[in-house]
Amino acid sequence: MWYLFELIFYVLIITTLIILYKVKKLSGLKKYIIIVSAIFALALGITFALEKPIVSVTDSISYEVKTHENLDIVQAYYHFLNVSDKVQINGEVDFNKVGNYKVEYVIPTLFGNYTKEQTIEIVDTTAPVITLEGNEIEKISYNKEYEEAGYAVTDNSDEDLYDNVTVTKEEVNEKEYKLIYTVEDSSHNVSTAERTVELIDEVAPVIKLKGDSTIYIKLNDKYTEQGATANDEIDGELTDAIKTSGKVDTSKEGKYKITYTVKDSSENEAKKTRTIVVYDESKPSVTPNTNPSSETGVIYLTFDDGPSSSITPKILDILKAKGVKATFFILNYSAANEKLVKREINEGHTVGIHGYSHTYSEIYTSVDAYMNNITKLRDKIKKSTGYDTIYTRFPGGSSNTVSRNYCKGIMTVLTKEVVARGYKYFDWNVSSGDAGDVKTSQAVYNNVTKGLKHNRANMVLMHDFSGNTKTLNALSDIIDYGLKNGYTFSSINSSTPMIKHGVNN
After folding, report:
1. Whose CA is closest to 370, among 359, 380, 381, 379?
2. Residue 142 has pLDDT above 60, yes or no
């Protein structure tokens, strides 16, 4: 086709020259008309030969990153012919990487190649996507800190933006706040996601007895009810809402129970029991013993629900300073808190399994669900620290009744199953009440020291979850009390007796 155009062009030139030569013999107007026509034809031929191709290419064009694999098809016309299939493209474009690229479109013509340049801009205008793990609305107890359920970030261009995410807290009201997750990619596209955290009241009121928890009355003496007080962190004073049940007949020997019950506005219930012993002083065998046994007892300090970055290190500091070993029944831990588990082990404490999860509705649905829960954490501890443990504590204790809501009779089976699989489980016989029954470090101290007895193993329940300053501030005094009163301290080991509750499900 190109040769045909060249032939026509040269024929036209030669013909024009011949015409111009022959018109010399002519004269008059006819001569000038022929000359002008020949010159016009020659100019038309030259213009036709020098015509540039028509190309459908702009100076620059943008493509969204990772949306194309090739450049768009270029439409080109030359001398009224479609020559798109003859267009050659010089230059490379990486459609998966943001940037500016130069390309050339080359089209052959009668007198060489025609070149058109274009700037290809690969851009990212799509914001990253933040995907929240867990629930968009999380409900937690008002006295606990929210533990991040996790999130993931994907982006068209940037591969890993996880560390670029910032989380800010925005208060909505006293019972709710929002967590705002924000991330910006390298192209300055910004994305946000929100999680709502609702604070719920899961903490029962605190009942304090007026007088002793055990009262001894001689036969036929008068019993005077001393009453109790009740306070709630949310509702305040609830003493007037206390309901008292039980009767005491001082005309008959025996033990009687007076139970004090109160509920807060969130239906959290607290109970406290007072024991009244009616005895006949003529029978020394039932006279209250005011002289404790001289046998030295052992105190096992145990901490549930850790590790936490705010409390656990300080508890370990106190134990180290006092030279006391303890036991930590831990939950699943983050990479940042792995060092705390290793420190517990390295400093000679015992690490036990509380569970990978503490959510009753998950772990108490079946025997397999529970066993998987403790096996998963045991495997993690062994993998990350090299430490293998067979000691465990049931969330809520073996006496818990909440498991009835998810699987009736499961605790009866589990207490046998864990032992059959080589574990030892430990409940407690001294409770600090720091998971909800008390508000002050003094109350924690009082609960522990009043619960200690010399002629037994004292398994003390405490917690090292985040924000539990009550136990942290009471710990040194509790240890000092034990040492001063002839107790020894130990972490749980192979010779420790299994302290068990009565099973209620």
Report:
1. 359
2. yes
